[in-house]
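Contributing new records

If you add data, match the layout below exactly. Sequence lines come first and carry their own label; structure lines follow with theirs. Keep one chain per record. Anything else will be rejected by the validation script.
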Amino acid sequence: MKPKLAPIQKEKEKTLRKDKITKSFNQKLRDDYLTRKEQQQAEKQANIERKKDIEQSLKQYKKTKQNKYKKIAKRTKSGQPLMKGQMELLLEKIQKSKE
């Protein structure tokens, strides 16, 4: 003998059945396509952001390298290197290491 269900439970069972409607093959394919497309867009956006970060860090690196070269490459009229720039670079290195 089955126990009698309260009317509220019967209504819940009906709503559960409506929620479990199966999708057709075409709907499943379309959903899969849309999810893959969203994933590809997200990957593309991540790649663009990563490239921008790399580009920015390269610019900064080149700028600092160029400044160092300018300080080291300075010469006197007779072609002797100026020690002022080299001493400044050494001072900066020491101050960075202290921090």
